[in-house]
Fold:
Amino acid sequence: MNRSIPLLSAGLVACLLSTACGAEVDPASRDSGTVTVENCGEEIDYPVPQRAVAYDMSSTEKMFALGLADRMRGVVMPSTAERSVAKSPWKEDYESVETLSTDVLSLEVVLSAKADWVLAGWNSGFSEGRGITPRKLERFGIRSYQHTESCFNYGSDPVSVPPLEALYTDLIDIGKIFRVEQRAREVVRDLKARAAKLREQRPEDPTSVFVYDSGTDKPFTSGNQAAPNAIVSLAGGRNVLSGLEKRWTTVGWEKVVEANPEVITVVDYGDKPVDEKIEFLKSFPPLSSTPAVRNNRFHVLDYGAAVSGPRNVEAAEKLAEYLRSIEN
Structure:
C-alpha cells in the first residue's frame, strides 16, 4: 500500500518513527514508585515495567508510537501478521525487539521471558481457555494491561468505549505506566486533530461500506465496537453492520447482501493474499448485484491499521481519499 499520507503530522513523524529519539523519561521514575491506572473497570498499581512483553500488532505499535521499543523484553507476533509487519512504518523497531513466539500468547512464553508486564487484549491474547489471564499473571508477580477496546468482552460488567476513545485511553495509560506522559499526550493530540479534520470533511450522505476480513461460508467482519467501525465513519462512510454491538464477529451473507454496500474494504491479513480475497468476493454469486461488486469498488485495509492502534487515523485518511476518488 502506498503511504502518500503521513502516519503522524510532520512535526512528529520523524521523531516518533525513530527509537533513537526515544521518549524522555525522568531517570528516577524508572525504578521507583507506582502509578494507579484504571483498566477494564479495575484500579491497578503499576511499578515501572522493566521487561515488557506485547502481543500482536495492536499492542506492539502502541508501544512503538510512544518510543518504548528499548523498554521491551520482546513481542509475541502470530505468523499471520507477517506481511503487515513487513509493511509497518515501525519496521526498524520490530527488527530491534526480539520475537518470542510466532504463535498465540501463552503463559509459558511470558514466564520464560521473565516478563514483568504484558500488554494484550481480552480474547485477543489473554484467554481463560488457554490459561493466561491478568489474574493468573498476578500470581507470578506480573502486571498486565488490557486494551480498552477489548474491555467490552471482559468480565461480568463489561466496559463499552468508542474505538477511537479506547485507543486514546490506551496511549495515555501506557504513557503513565512507563512515565512518558508528555510523549503520549503529543501523540494523542496529533491523532485527535487529524480525526477532527476528517469529521469536518464528512459528506452529508455517507458511502455504505462492508468490512471484510475473511470467511467464505460466513464472513468475519467488524461490529461497532472495533476499530474499523471508527475508521469507516471518520472516512465519510457508514459501516453497513454498525448496528452490531460486537467487536469482530461472524454474520450471515444475507445481512451483507441486504445492506447493498457501495464499497467493500478488505483486510489484508492471514494466510490468504488479499487479491485472492477480492477475487472470491467478485465471483461470489450473492454479492454480484451489489454496487461494490458491480463497480469494482474494493479498498484494501492493512491488518496493522485495522486493529486498535496508532495507525487507525491514517487508515481513515486513506479510506477518505479513496471514497472521494470514486465520487469524482
Notes: The first strand starts at residue 34 and ends at 39.
